[in-house]
Amino acid sequence: MTRPGGTRGRRGPERAVAERPAARPPRDPERPPARPVSKARYRRRRLAALLIGLVLLVGLGLGARVLLYDAGLFDVEEVRVAGAATVAEADVRAAAAVAPGGPLAAVDTAAVATRVARLPPVESVHVDRSWPHTLTVTITERVPVATVTTAQGPALVDRTGVVYHGAGPADLPRLTTAPRSGDPATVAAVGVLAALPDSLRAQVDSVGATVSVPGAPGQVTLVMAGGEEVRWGAPERAGEKAAALSALLTQPGTVYDVTSPDLPTIRR
């Protein structure tokens, strides 16, 4: 059915309707507006927060001290020794002088290392705490390369020229140079021994060195197990001299000179 003056099935254009913003609640006339925080009040709040934080830190520090030092929960129960081969572990513990029962945190590890390093065969020491109850002392022993006779009896010489008393292999070469720790002649002689390949070092019976001019390098001489003399010269170019000596020893001779590895000689 069609209404007069109208068209069937036809609609007019749609109109966009804007939504109104929600009405703000009426302001409470009895509530005063918020006032900005003054600078003085802000400083007081900040100071209060700092004081609270400081009190907490002090409390934590006191609690940690009680746990580590006073409660007995982290006391020393064992001194463990590592790296000892010829040095007795009992000697290391005695030198460390750390009594069981004291707080592990109170142990002066640097002082312990200094005391243990006074043992003649010890080259270096490292001390650390192994929580909760163990102090670990790790030592590195000296490596002897020669023996020497001193006024106190037989002694060892390590690869750095330090003379000390201790236990070492029975087949070490003899050092004929006057035994003085750090002496240039001693350092030169043991430096050559340390640089030799094992196959050559095993053939050496004795080693000595002389220094003709102060400050000059030591002049090293080796005596082999068969009585042959090796004029080595200065410690420099040890690898080249060792290679040259290995080749010379395949030929008969009484004196082998590798002072200049470029021109080695044999005296028969």
Automatic annotation (TrEMBL):
It holds the Pfam family FtsQ_DivIB_C. InterPro entries: Cell_div_FtsQ/DivIB_C (IPR005548), FtsQ_DivIB (IPR050487), POTRA (IPR034746), POTRA_FtsQ_type (IPR013685). Signal peptide: none annotated. One of its GO terms (cellular component) is plasma membrane. Residues 1-39 are annotated as: Disordered. Its main location: membrane. It comes from the Bacteria. Keywords: Cell cycle, Cell division, Cell membrane, Membrane, Transmembrane, Transmembrane helix. Residues 11-33 have a biased composition (Basic and acidic residues). Residues 74-142 form the POTRA domain. GO terms for biological process: cell division. The chain crosses the membrane at residues 47-68. It is found in: Membrane. This is Cell division protein FtsQ.
